Amino acid sequence: MTIKLDSRIPPGPVPQKWEYAKSHYKLVNPANKRKYEIIVVGAGLAGASAAATLGELGYNVKCFVYHDSPRRAHSIAAQGGINAAKNYRNDGDSVYRLFYDTIKGGDYRAREANVHRLAELSVNIIDQAVAQGVPFAREYGGALENRSFGGVQVSRTFYARGQTGQQLLLGAFQALERQIALGTVKQYNRYEMLDLVVVDGHAKGIITRNLVTGKIETHAADAVVLGTGGYVNVFYLSTNAKASNATAIWRAHKRGAAFANACYTQIHPTCIPQSGDFQSKLTLMSESLRNDGRIWVPKAQGDKRSPKDIPESERDYYLERKYPSFGNLAPRDIASRAAKEACDDGRGIGPSGRGVYLDFADAIQRLGRKTIEERYGNLFEMYHDITAEDPYELPMRIYPAPHYSMGGLWVDYNLMSTVPGLYVIGEANFSDHGANRLGASALMQGLADGYFVLPVTIGDYLAGEFGKKVPATHPAFAEAETAVRQRVAKLLDAKGTRSVDSYHRELGGIMWDYCGMARSAEGLKKALGMVRDLKDKYWRDVRVLGGGEEPNQALEKAGRVADFFELAELMCIDALHREESAGGHFRVEYQTPDGEAQRDDENFTYVGAWEHKGEGNEPVLHKEPLVYEEVKLATRSYK
Ligand SMILES: Cc1cc2nc3c(=O)[nH]c(=O)nc-3n(C[C@H](O)[C@H](O)[C@H](O)COP(=O)(O)OP(=O)(O)OC[C@H]3O[C@@H](n4cnc5c(N)ncnc54)[C@H](O)[C@@H]3O)c2cc1C
User: What CATH number corresponds to the domain at position 296?
Assistant: First the structure.
């Protein structure tokens, strides 16, 4: 099978494409919707909003999550906010500006048509969430409050203290619960999707493992939707929930879904620094803190004085110095690299020297402690609990950490992958953020996909599938089920010497060192060899205790880490082939004299989508050219 990339971008000017598309999609008659079954895997913001909306439309939905409740999805961790071009502040915002900021923020490596649609829908999301009762912060007069995030010069981020994801997820969850009660959605908690079933080239079902009983089951449907989140846990240490993994998208990739821009991962500048080798998780300090916090390091190398003893004249507020227009709100990729540069220069702070200060002293003096507490209280508490340092008294210590994956399964304008009938939404797809995502745009994208885009576009496919149901007795289901059983057995039978976690930690270290914040051809080639060697050893030597027919967390992790190994290879291959720097992909060979990312628009203005060619074979690259009609390609500058 050879993949064909058809982005199905509607005709007409960019701002009118979505309107055109909606008016021309095929429709499914309301009375026929209940004759269709749709599988939704994932109930984070993307999956829950999609499943609830599809149920509301009248489709029969089966929703699978490996969590014990949709409320535990990683989306609940989102802190700072969600963007929307409402222009409540009257500070010059517009749909066009949000669209432009996102294209520029992504370093001109995203598809214009999708991003414009996202900006248009951003305003509907806020209305939807408010109608659900999401308690967004309000100004004294009652209007919804806004703050700023990186890479923009307006205030368009709506928030609920530092718990925006949680509140939005509760809104989506109650919409989902309503459909569960009405019987349109059947919820399967503690089920892990372990394979996709493809019949005559179309996605027709999934294979799951019941994580309580260990039972492996088949489920048939007319279409499958993956809202299974991002993959930066490939780095082992990240800000993501420990359980977040790439298995669903990776299995789908191996069944024919192209994987796009695998090397585009985001390293977030403001996380609590790692404090030792024992650690299994890193904690984000929301970007919203950069509205009021100022980032600095001592001017002198190796300065070990307490921050309180370092006078103003001996501090380097390096973001304000290097990027005066955007200052502390420079985009994440740029702020992360600047922090690394300061630490590489010997000016890092804290025990490891890999840290910079995020200081609120000025803001507390200007606004008072109470205001800072109201804006960020829970984040300050979290920081205090983890570090035993009081950020009201001493600046926070922060350092970049893996946070988000811009890459993911390739989707067309309708959010359909290269496997017809397989849709991918939220962080799991590659769609809207190019080579770098701007803060507060992931929640916007997940909810735009789930509430507004997918429920419309999926009808266009389903209308043509009427009467083409494939039962779970089709041999393709038995074949996929057997493959899953064999894989589970192989992991259990390895009976080696080392734990899954020890391998995962080692893999993460390789990826961080060679495919993290800075990459080079030499390092990536080395990493490829190391990942492949470690993967071979893993399959021979991993030790998974317990059995398959029982709850077994080691077995769950073992399967996920096996997939991370293969994904890590693809990330290195993708990073090696992209001989330019763009956004989060910083190739040290391609930088401007002042150390900024240097794109090569002539040769790399495309989405790189990889086709799996079977175990042991090199993947094949397909290119979707990126054509800019509205925005002119330009060197990104935040100075
Ligand atoms: C600490 C933190 C703070 C953040 N803050 C913000 C913010 O302020 N603003 C913003 O815009 N973005 C923020 N982000 C990013 C944002 O939270 C995520 O990108 C977004 O929530 C992803 O949502 P999702 O629905 O795509 O996936 P998730 O929320 O990760 O949900 C994945 C779902 O898929 C299920 N699943 C996965 N694999 C399988 C499988 N194989 N079988 C069955 N089920 C499966 C899971 O059970 C879960 O229900 C933050 C991220 C982090 C880490």
Answer: 3.90.700.10
